[in-house]
Amino acid sequence: MNYQAILNEIYEELQPELMRGRVADYIPALAEVEKGQFAMTVTLDDGQVFSVGESSKQFSIQSISKVFTFTLALDIYSRELYKRVGVEPSGNPFNSLVQLEYENGIPRNPFINAGAITITDTLISHYKDEYKTLEVIMHFVRQISGNPKLSFDSAVAKSEMEHGDRNLALARLMKSFGNFENDVINTVMTYFKHCAITMNTEELSRSMLFLAFGGRDPISKKQFITPSQAKRINAVMLTCGHYDASGEFAFHVGLPAKSGVGGGIAAIVPGKMSIAVWSPALNKYGNSHAGTLALEKFTTKTGLSIF
Ligand code: GLU
């Protein structure tokens, strides 16, 4: 299949859509990102990379980082992890407090904010402090992305902390139910830092490749997690990867994927490839407007989906 031609075609067809939607503005540092930008990358197991648009431009991966922290925590805790966080779609906005209250402080899944903050908390408990935890997270994303210099944007993390009342409230609510082990401020700050990791679509696409191949990066040949763990992470991406539009995304695109409010979406085609797309203007659910359409076009044109 001529992936380059397909990506070029998608880019062309999406031109009228690129200005539609709104850039996330609840994190002021993210509101400065110009809309109208677009990039898409496909990475195959033999290392071939196909890109279109601004594929070397870094953006804030935000919630996509939750896939990487979930991977690390699952590897450490295995099934024990599910005592602290579930695997059901929430059907609620990503930062909802209401559900957490009536479900006794156990977040529905690792990809809503409460769940991801819990995951960060479990990592801090394991590694004993937040610095070591961040170091481990950064080491892991550098390994899977193939970029040893990958970093996070401290201005974005700081901006998020300055407006982080809701995430702090989620953490405190969990603490009140006994589902929180570490200092709330330090934990939430560590969560904001990993959300502020910056990548371009080439790095992001490469980072997801191990999930398309049973936990093993086919390029570096490193086995990061077991095939069974990869299966579970992919299942949670399929059912919970797009906030309360996860059903719609599965319906239109048909791939396990995770989005972030920075406008990135990372997807995998099991046994075949990983795909990353970025376009900062979001639809009403907080998912990249053009990014979602691009993936829908990709699976339609190539016939590649898990269904
Ligand atoms: N750091 C963001 C927050 O907690 C992540 C949001 C997202 O990408 O969904 O609000």
Q: What can you see in these coordinates?
A:
The protein is α+β, with helices and mostly antiparallel strands. The chain has two domains: 3-22 and 34-62 and 198-299, DD-peptidase/beta-lactamase superfamily (Beta-lactamase, 3-Layer(aba) Sandwich), CATH 3.40.710; 67-195, 3-Layer(aba) Sandwich (Beta-lactamase). It contains 13 helices and nine strands. The chain has helices at residues 3-14, 28-31, 65-77, 98-102, 113-127, 130-145, 154-162, 165-176, 184-195, 201-212, 227-240, 246-252, 289-302, and strands at 22-23, 39-44, 49-53, 59-60, 198-199, 257-259, 264-269, 273-278, 281-282. Strands 3-2-8-7-6 form a five-stranded antiparallel sheet. A two-stranded antiparallel sheet has the order 1-9. Helix 6 (130-145) packs across helix 10 (201-212). Bound molecules: glutamic acid (GLU). Glutamic acid binds at residues 62-63, 94-95, 113, 160, 167, 192, 195, 260-261.
The CATH architecture name of the largest domain reads 3-Layer(aba) Sandwich
- Fourth-tier CATH superfamily name of the largest domain: DD-peptidase/beta-lactamase superfamily
Tally of contiguous helical segments: 13
Overall average residue pLDDT: 96
**H/E order of the elements?**
HEHEEEHHHHHHHEHHHEEEEH
CATH topology of the largest domain: Beta-lactamase
Distance between the termini: 19 Å
Integer-rounded radius of gyration: 18 Å
The low-confidence runs, each spanning 5 or more residues with pLDDT under 50, are none
DSSP strand tally: 9
The small molecules bound here are: glutamic acid
Main sheet overview: 5 strands, antiparallel
Alpha-beta classification: alpha+beta
Give the strand order of the largest sheet, numbering strands 1, 2, ... along the chain: 3-2-8-7-6
CATH class of the largest domain: Alpha Beta
Strand content: 5-15%
